[in-house]
What does this fold into?
Amino acid sequence: MAEAAQSLHPSQPLKHGHSVKRHTGLMDWITTVDHKKIAILYLWAGGIFFGIGGLEAILIRIQLIKPMNTFLDAQTFNELITMHGTTMIFLGVMPVIFALMNAVIPLQIGARDVAFPFLNALGFWTFLFGGILLNLSWVMGGAPDAGWTSYTPLSSTGYSPTHGVDFYTIGLQIAGLGTLIGGINFLATIITMRAPGMSFMRMPMFAWTTFITSAIILFAFPAITVGLVLLTFDRILEANFFNVAGGGNPVLWQHIFWIFGHPEVYILILPAFGVISEVIPTFSRKRLFGYSSMVFATILIAFLGFMVWAHHMFTTGLGPVANALFSVSTMLIAVPTGIKIFNWLFTMWGGQVRFTTPNLFAAGFIPTFTMGGVTGVMLASAPADFQFHDTYFVVAHFHYVIVGGLVLGLFAGLHYWWPKMFGRMLSETLGKWTFWTFIIGFHLTFFVQHFLGLMGMQRRVFTYLPNQQFDLLNLVSTIGAMLMGVGMLIFLTNIFLTSRRPADAADDPWEDGRTLEWTIPSPPPEYNFKQTPLVRGLDAFWKEKMAGHKGMTPSEPVGSIHMPSATILPFLMSVGIFIAGLGFMFSRDEFSSSIMSFLFNNYIVTALGLLITFGSMLMRSLFDDPGWHIEPEELEGR
Amino acid sequence: MTTAHAEAANGTLPHEPEKATLEGRNKVLAFWLFLGGEAVLFGTLFATFLALRNQTNEGPSANELFHLPLVAAATFLLLVSSLTSVFAIQAMHRGRVTMLRNWLLVTVLLGLCFLVLEIYEFSVYIRHEEFGMTTSAFSSAFYTLVGFHGAHVAFGILWISVLIGQLMHKGLTVVTAPKIYVSAMYWHFIDVVWVFIFTVVYLLGKVG
Amino acid sequence: MATKQHSPDSPVKHRHRPEGPQRHIVVFVFSIVLTLIAFAAVAAGGVNPTFAVILLLVMAVLQVILQMGFWMHLKDKGHMMPIIFMLGGFFIAGTCIIMSLYWVWWD
It folds into this structure.
């Protein structure tokens, strides 16, 4: 980046001692473009949404603890399941994935920041405001209630007359924009910002999965963008895309949703694969078994992920040819996934395995995820799916892959990189308590749901009759959910206690770090690397350690480092989109106050919001960011 | 990089100023990635249109509605504007700022004419043919697909206009050059999408 | 920005000669011809519909390949990543279109 800075201002010498306005407190967080701080923002925001989604899950499980329960009514239950799914996927786990990517990727590839720090901040703020918009529905006339898949005609105005589904379409649209921006940013970062010597085939596995995940985001999110636009137009502008009376077709929504929706689940799981592929070699003191097959399997999963969407629609009636095709393509995914499972096992085999908390989560991940994968192959069989469809068997399956896979992976990653992000080691004792309560709770909750499904209990129904052999298993499931909640509370306690201890984590706190992030201080300085390292092979740091070196060989002399300026514009752009979204949503409403009617019905609020957004974009375009420099004296003086 | 630096320091720009800095190269690359996403966006819109193309709900059909001369004129305008934006980039590579500005202006004007033509077309459909957003699934799909493209044209016009202003104020530098190059890529992509629109929506609509 | 501005239209010495406009004009002529063929086939009428569909799509794809290759410089060196990601985008777009043609309406 120093190099780039010089060429940015070629006709004048670098402005040495260029003063920079430093923000503090809240302003610092709102204006930051530092990937490490944005990672923490993603973690906090994602954590809060995850907590909301978790509470919704607990409420759902309390309602189902006994037959004919009256704890919740049907409408509230529908809103809760919709918001639980939507929140967890789009606002809970995706931001935490982005938190890990932001915290780790630039460090792992030896870069001083992402390719577009400004866009990075913009991606975060649009995600956050989209999430806030979606959750505002609870206090503004009712949450969406058509399920996270929002199938038409259930989600059309005929059956969802309130604004609930509008909050879904517009909230997700805005949050999705943020995700797309983040995806493009990480693609560009990984393509262009790798340290000298780090070829693609020397990249850490987490960088690879981030790269492939970002590519899936790039190709999948535009599809849901269109799907949400069509649904919004149907609901607000009375278009006819999914309206049978006007010639539309509800099946089209299912297709568009799943053309996005299935790749989306690979967007979720691939980063977890990456985390596991980092944690297991570190704590086995062995290089990852079959690195290149791992890369190949990741690419293959991404490709196949786009070719299987209709397996969600076997019962729609696409016919035997389509069902057979999608059955086969779905089963094919088991091959690259199986390659990965065996690679992890072979990495551990013969290694000096240490069961630290991250490695416990990683070791727990492998069998749990495999179980989810096996039920996936069962569901891939179209004839059998007619039995499984819309039962708790499906619920058990996707919780096994998403919670048993992704969430365990995220826990592994958070415990693993926590010292790098915050400079403090999480308590190992509490970490192990978290692991055991969470994983036992998890299996209690969801293992029994396989059998509930096979016995015919339907998903998304707010209660059930007694004496169908559902009672005991549901009770067990609810107890398990409570136990998972306890695990989360232990984790939060761990974070709280750790935050009160001094930040004294070593550069390489696990002592067996293999990749570049462990060569710099914990937490890293804002420029990450004083000198960009020279990479000599896969597992760059481990290679130097084995050669008897203490650190990396630098690839450049110590020099002035160019940094991007903090800016409030990403925040303002997101506020603008938020206002525009709210304005558009209520544009057809009747208000008691004539001023409100005037403002909303004439799209004035929408225009105002767009004006803020486009105005901020114009500001960004007109006023170039000269950035600022950290001088060699400062670097040496720390 | 070092040669670019030296040349620029002498007061001349490198041959391809948009690629002289890491920021510039990143911008061009990321814009390509974005266009990959845009391809999926328009692909999904085309898919929607194709699925609903015969669902006229007793409203006008494609064959009754479209007039080829109008479409041909719009096509010609956009095609020429894509060529003029090539000329603009060539002028930029030669370091000819005035010529660059003029070609950009011509591009914007042609884009504006295209947009006027499209608005005229839509207004005829709505007022004289009783063909609005709510008429049928076909009409919804038509307005959404063609309207998305029109919105892209409108944004491109605004964008390039802002860049012309910057070009006049800041001159052609390694900061402004990538912006102009990227906007030209965007403009070509809009033309590429239009090639599919006039083929799939209008011509195939006429064929039936 | 403080970067020096070019004096308008001053001849600049280049080590690489920038490519001339000729080939771009050739691409333009080809585009016009392909477009004309497409419009003419439809305007003339009486063309077999299946043949018309194939002809129109071939004309469109040819034109797009020409424009993306020459006008957007995809044929030049150093465009591997753009080509990969554009092909990826077109591939997924094609998947969507297959979906819409075969799996939305059925008997």
Summary: Chain A has a mean pLDDT of 94. The two ends of chain A are 20 Å apart (CA to CA).
